[in-house]
Each structure stands twice: as C-alpha cells, then as structure tokens.
Predict the 3D structure of the following.
Amino acid sequence: MDIEQYKTNIPPSFLRFAEQIKGNSPVAVHSMYVVVSVLTPDFNPDGSDINSLIVVEEHQLDFLDFLITLGKEFREHRVAPPLVMTAEYIDHSLDVFPIEFFNFQAIHHTLFGDDLLGRLQIVDKHLRLQCEREIKAKLLWLGQIYIETLGDRNRLSEKLAASITGFFPLFRAIIHLAGKDAPLGCKEVLQTFGATVGLESDIFARIHQMKIAGEQVAQMDELSSCFSSYYQATERIAHYVDQLSC
C-alpha cells in the first residue's frame, strides 16, 4: 500500500502533539506512529479523528497522566487517544490481534523512533482464524441488533451505518489471505474484495454511503431488504473464510 501521497493529510497540530511527546514525555518512548485513516484517501479533515500508536519502554501511569494533559490541549484538533503499548506486548499479541496489527503494519507512518511496525511477522494462520471469528461475530451481532431495534427504522439505519467501519480492516486481511495486495481506499477495498471473494459488494457500498452521508433509509421495507442483503453477504463471506487454507 502506497501511503506516501497521503502523508500530507497529517495536520501540523498533530505533528506538534508528536513533538510534545518526543520532547517532554516523563518515560522513555521507543517510537510513535500515525496509523490508518489519516493515511488513506478516505480521510476527512473536518470529521475524521487522527489515530496513533505509541510504543513505550514500559507502562507507567505517569505517561497516561501526561497524555491526559496533552489531550486537553489537542482534543479540539481531533487527536484521538493514542494506543499505548510496549514492544513486548506487541510481540505477545500478534497471534491474538493479527487483523489490527496487519492493518497497522500496512497503513502507518513512523513519526519518530525505530519502525517496529514495519518489521512485524504476522502468521497467516492466525490472521485467518481471527477473520473467521470476526465475521461470525458480526453475523451474531446483526441478528441481535435487528431484534434490539424493535422495528425502529432510524435506529436500525444508524446501527447498520456504524457497523461498516469494522468491515474494512477485515476485508483488507481477507484480500491479503487470498494472495492479493489490499488497497488503501474504502471504495477500492470493496471493489477488490468483491472480485476476490466472488461477491457483489454493492450492499457494502450502500451501507458505507449511509455512513458517509448520514443517510436514513426512507421506508422500512427498503431497510428490511437492505438488512437482508447485508446479512446474506456477510454469511457468504463467512463461508469463504471457512474455505481458506493457510
């Protein structure tokens, strides 16, 4: 994934945030990275949070208190609370969170320090197992929210729109497991994923558009049809992942 052209998305305010951490941290910081959405064509400077990951030599409460102080200064600049972890935590968690670390490795920029993320060794077997777990969990969740919303069109629309974000890291991982390069942008991810899995991705594009535009589905019967297509497509993905061999 070529993120070079999207590094200019990183705003000066976030670079100041990183400089504060580099220069004033009360604990030893190994490295800091900006990750995911800000380095993609989908980044919206007026609405997207800026996500980061900080690797410290050891966890100390002093550092979290330091980040709270910075958060009060930078939260108006859409700086999301950073993920804070040690190198040991990462090394011992690659088999537990391979989807997350796969996406961090694929979509990151090192702000300072050693590029630990670039050297991660993620095992495809672990990645496939989490993909299976995640997609089957989404099936259960979809059934639950359909019941939970009690036929309330607005609530169900909101739930569906909010759910689409979690599909993209999963789709990138599945594309990788199929032996293809995963794109950065959501539109391109859906196109590549659909071609890879042999699945019409229109329903995911429809839900994604609902998310971006804040749309509500006008009629309940249309929403029910939309939900049914979403659920059935997710079922097909679960079946595809079941058949993957790693």
